[in-house]
Amino acid sequence: MNNKNYCRVLPGLLITALALLAFMPVAVFAVDSGSSADAALRIITEPSGRGRLKDRHGQVYGMSTELVKAVQQQLGNTATIEILPWARAYAIAVSSDNVVLYDTIRTAEREDKFKWVGPIKIYSVDLHARKGAIKDNTSLANLLQNHVVCETRNTSIVNELLSLGFEIDKNLILSRQSGDCYNMLKLGRADLIAMHSDVTPKRQAELLDAGLDLQPVYPLQPIEIYLAFSLAVNDTVINNWQCALNKLVLQGEFRRLYQGEYADAMINEIEARAAQSQQQLTCH
Q1: Model confidence pTM above 0.85
Q2: pLDDT reading at 1 higher than 70
């Protein structure tokens, strides 16, 4: 073909090729939203003496974390778990598109801020004081007038305490991390902390070793704890995580991790919830 003919044919070939590309199925360029969202998840937790700690290599470990890691393994998710102060972790979770935050208390105020997987803990909560420091069956009025409570900043329990009449910087101290309130109690800067009531003998011994002989003095609302996912996370990812969690619970992994640390009644309830959830979901 001479140069003149080549120049005349080339534009026609280009036009034909572009036309064919225009009609190619869009699915060729699509990305699996479920798998891509899962791979990009940012998993965040807070420091806590029982559920989330770091070893000497900087790796997060503990009961809640081991459960989350087991779910990750089931799903082939390799995201590294970050550990941040609760207030910062919560702020990131509500303002980002692809975050998982645990342990997160599920409340009516938070219901529409996240997608939920769980529960991973269920228990009743009381305000606790040092044994003998506050009379049994004390009134709320007495607590408000004469005592100071400490609670971690930005938790749902803070909202409940405010609704009961406690006031920040008057009789309510807000800490950055959950363990800080135990220290406040030991130092005498606070009289009350919120703590779940189903204390096992092992946990009671740990508290006594730390110099904290505590007793419940006033009941709060029971709480349920979940993994909280950003609203933008694909529903397929949520379903996959719930199915994987249910499977682990029903296989006994949850009981293995939590028995002795939490009451059997809670473990039994989690297992019953997982069985019910598994019947309602489509799991692969």
Answers
A1: no
A2: no
